[in-house]
């Protein structure tokens, strides 16, 4: 049981990790590109990297944090304009090739060492250490020093941490998750404010119960601390609300129209190019914001924000469901928590020296997680291409 509790603890730490929240923000932007507009953008990591570089370099040069955030967003805006003007008339695979190439250009420029002044800013392939730009954000913390258990009252305070208590608790958590998915997919007869309230209530209760079953202790302030976690997930919540407002507006309906039939939109007098450009810019700004949050507890290292990160974002989006409000957040959580589960199980039961049947090295357990995730994604695309919360009708793309 201790092994299982350790595995669950690893999964819970990943679930609340600020970088998981940062990827969820970037996936929300990708959802605007791919889910709502049908733009096959394979370069979301470029927006994340530009936002991170703009934020980090500005602070290292003495710019106040608020203006550093604006500079990071401005870089993403300029990149979206430069990228979009010549390429948004392309469709399907052609647009995908151009965007992934542009993202690779940004990554290679960031890691290059041939230009002295540029290397002084980006620090080349080594990247910019978080200690050089994290302080202004950390100084805003009002959580103080020390550590905090996110839910002080937990399973250890009930019946001495009985296994029965934990089993009942996990049954309730799973039931709440199933209920949440059914509500999100419209399987429960709730609409409007009642539907939203039920979803928020189910999320809060499930999260509190999960923390009750797997207590997590974090430092109040510092990299990956409680301050970083609280801010990151607050930004996720605000991003979801903003996405909800955008997609339910006439502009959101125009995005769907462009995705499904560009010619019909042109016949109605709509400027399809302008709508695509607006979607590319807004989704890119979400990506830049996610990139800033991603590097706050880490380092601005170009290779860590390359095409692999874009593929992670697409996996999370497809898993949760494209063209849905909650899909990006749910998909990001499931993807990273599932990956942490595979790694933790592999290290506990399959790693050489950890159990009698162990036959993998630590590096192989990490690689094994990628194999499992890849197979899972293949099965998902084959058997449920719309994702957990998605609708097959939303997969009609005019590409």
TrEMBL record:
Pfam families named among the record's database cross-references: BPD_transp_2 (PF02653)
Entry membrane topology: Multi-pass membrane protein
Residue ranges of the TM segments: 20-36, 66-85, 163-184, 196-214, 226-246, 273-296, 365-383
Subcellular localization(s) per the UniProt record: Cell membrane
GO terms for cellular component: plasma membrane
UniProt xrefs under InterPro entries: ABC_transp_permease (IPR001851), LivM-like (IPR043428)
GO molecular function, one term: branched-chain amino acid transmembrane transporter activity
Keyword set, alphabetical order: Cell membrane, Membrane, Transmembrane, Transmembrane helix
Protein name according to UniProt: Branched-chain amino acid ABC transporter permease
The keyword Transmembrane is assigned to this record: yes
Main subcellular location: membrane
CDD domains in the record: TM_PBP1_LivM_like
Organism domain of life: Bacteria
